[in-house]
Fold this sequence. Notes:
It contains four helices and 30 strands. By secondary structure, the protein is mainly beta. It has three domains: 21-104, Sandwich (Immunoglobulin-like); 109-229, Ferric Hydroxamate Uptake Protein, Chain A, domain 1, CATH 2.170.130.10; 233-471, no CATH class. Strands 19, 20, 21, 22, 23, 24, 25, 26, 27, 28, 29 and 30 form a twelve-stranded antiparallel beta sheet that branches. A hairpin with a 7-residue loop joins strand 22 (279-289) and strand 23 (297-308). The relative contact order is 0.07.
Amino acid sequence: MRQFYLLLLVVWSQCAVYAQETATTLTGKVVTETLPMEFVNIVLLDWETKKIVTGAVTDADGTFSFAIAPGTYAVKASFLGYQNYESAAIKVESGKSHIIPLINLKQDGKLLNEVVVEATAKKPLIQLQSDKIVMNVENSVLSEGNTALELLEKAPGVMVDNDGNISLRGKQGVTIMINDKKTYLSQQQLTNLLKGTSSSSISAVEVITNPSAKYDAAGNAGVINIKLKKNARNGFNGSVNANYGRGRKNRFGSGLNLNYKTGKYNFYGSYDQYYRGESETFTFDRNFYTDATRQTLEKFSNQYSVTDEPLKTNNFKAGLEYDLSENTFVGFKVSGDIGSYTNNSMSENKVRSADTSLLSDALTNNHNHSKWNSMSYNGSFLHKFDSAKQEISADVDYTHSRFRDNALLATQFNPTPVQQAYESTRRGMTPSSTSIFVAKADYVYRVKEKLSFEAGWKSMALSPDAGCVGT
């Protein structure tokens, strides 16, 4: 028994020491001139790798705080209309609280003026509501020339890495919704969809860091709800949009929105197409040493890669809404998404010994082609009680999507003094299809402005079918 108590004491002591070594707080404040700035995106980066460690959003006083392990970090601050800020290396020691020097963001001239003029004419660009932060895109400078993914990069607390992975306040596993409906897509499919959706079709972006049960959020990272535009004017009306841009490649898109409202009926439909050309060039230089001290060079490699990545998307929807009464509404909608993405890359890699003798000379061509199509059907019901404090809603959704990926990897190894010439070829095909049926009902009672009671029911059936063929 003494040995048992002694073991517990040792374990407790080790845990206490560990907690003491890792308990560290890093705080800071963001201002513009002397005024505190709210909703500023703060990202904590690992100093060496520049990878995101965590994130935060400043409060009404412009302050933010991180609880982190000892290490060396950098802090990055960004806000629409202001120049980005990135700190020098910040060394965080164990068991000490660290305060970052005051961060003073500078205005970005013309862009800030455009944002203020556009936003104040209709709605403020950023709105803080009881359960979410809303970025009003419609009628702002953000409504043109951006994709949905680029909009998310500007939303408070949202971070998007180079691969299109989305995090909220530094947490992965964010639930993405479009018009209050969850998108049952893989990471690659979701990234392609957001890249192919024009900002001109988006009304607002809602950031919900503490979602209620009705949002059905997986994990605790939060919810991002993208609200698409809806036309409710009487009579027949519509709009046409087109955009063009160029970086290394051309990017262009166009869209059509039509709406006809008469009496209790509202008919609507839209179509958007988008093409994004993209090319990237990489150069990698690597050194390999004989041991961990990195004193003696064994060999080194020089790699050059270039990619061509065209993306094509087509999105459409059509629907009918009918007012059963002043407070009761029903609707039906069908929507679809058809697209393709190709990644063609060429890579040359030479490996040499420390005396520059050629050890390996490889030329690799990689061709990856993905295409998909998805159809969704929705029936909805909404009733608002006379007091306007209570409402009940119901939705039935069915979605069927198909995805197919073909890959070819061919490598030609040229002869060297230590290696004979040979070829390596790999092929792969990944077909998949998914059918999803979801039915749900929700009840909301708003007790007062910042207090509400919610209850709901949901049922879902999922039928996935995936395969993989490789040679």
